[in-house]
Amino acid sequence: QSALTQEASVSGTVGQKVTLSCTGNINNIGSYVVGWYQQISHGAPKTVMFGNSLPSGIPDRFSGSKSGTTASLTISGLQPEDEGDYYCSTWDYSLRAQVFGGGTKLTVL
Amino acid sequence: QVQLVESGGGVVQPGGSLRLSCEASGFILSSYGMYWVRQAPGKGLEWMTFLHYGGSNKHYADSVKGRFTVSRDISKNTLYLQMNSLRPEDTAVYYCAKDGDYHGSGTYPVDYWGQGTLVTVSS
Lengths: 109, 123
What we know:
The complex is a heterodimer.
Chain A: E1 5-6, E2 9-12, E3 17-23, E4 35-39, E5 46-50, E6 62-67, E7 70-76, E8 84-92, E9 97-100, E10 104-108
Chain B: E1 3-7, E2 10-12, E3 18-25, E4 32-39, E5 45-51, E6 58-60, E7 68-73, E8 78-83, E9 92-102, E10 110-113, E11 117-121
Parallel strand pairs in B: 2-11
Antiparallel strand pairs in B: 1-3, 3-8, 4-5, 4-9, 5-6, 7-8, 9-10, 9-11
């Protein structure tokens, strides 16, 4: 069981806005910066959000936010190439470890 | 630009050993902490180890503590993962990844990932 909880699957149509969530507790999301990673067709992960900062080369339709112990990744204007698995991660103070969510499978209809 | 290139994966028998390498370019290894993260077939990402930018502090997941050792060679800008007493459940793609925080302590997320190297533990 993952320390961070993500939806198993989310779907949306091209152009739609979708939001993925990542829920933890005060020892992890509530206290530390959250990263979001995209994995397409079981390839290498790619960082798409770092706190609320967009890494170089990532389209600005991706945005990140956090409220309390829940972090969110929003994709505004969903594109077919956004389909894939998305993972969140952060540091957990009590576990003394980087923890990952179980991943969300995003389907573009 | 930042690049991470892993090598050293392969097939090994249970109880065997393997050493993975991760050649880094585009940044100085001694300025950033480094992670090893693995992904078992059909499963999610799992953090394995973190090597502090100073090179001395190391953190391990409970599942590999005492069996895996992370190290680096600054002169080669290369990170290593020595894996001993391998078990079938260690079968996974292993990724090296860079800490996003300059002189960070491992509490920041990853900003760059390698392409991964597959380790298969099987008799």
